[in-house]
Structure prediction request, 187 residues.
Amino acid sequence: MIRLVVSAAVLTMLALSTAPLQAQSMRSLPPPEPSGYRLDDYRAPTPQTLAGATVLDTKQARALWQERKAVFIDVLPHVPKPANLPEGTLWRDPPHETIAGAAWLPEVGRGALAPATEDYFKRSLAELSHDRREEALVFFCKKDCWMSWNAAKRALSYGYRRIYWYAAGVDGWQAEGLSLETAKPRP
Prediction:
């Protein structure tokens, strides 16, 4: 009888001591793919998948880039002008570094787009793809950034069929020692 009580106590202690590890393990799992767009908290862990798209690692993205087999589209938003600047202060947008040759379409990765932004996105995709829905399009921004996931998902909803999502984005590119260039937003 004493032996059974000790065993139960030991099991209880083990269960309690591993609970924090299990909770930590659960937190480190990527989130599941949502059915809709991410509407806020864009800099957070992203899913590992995007239904209808191909998820690229840096090696795969680099191969597409080197072979010039896809249009690369950076969707990171503009850095906003600080609201508390003293009157008369000149504001210059900081340089935006991106993958060489990529088109920068700021703001199109938000979960909800204003009509003008959605028109800009549709028009830009049509021009970049030469109105070919089968053109390979690679969407990216930064690591743990939902904006590229949203933009790729939205491009799928517009009927584009060869959508790639490069989840590591500029951060993954730069971590591999690959070069970046300064870009201006696409008009």
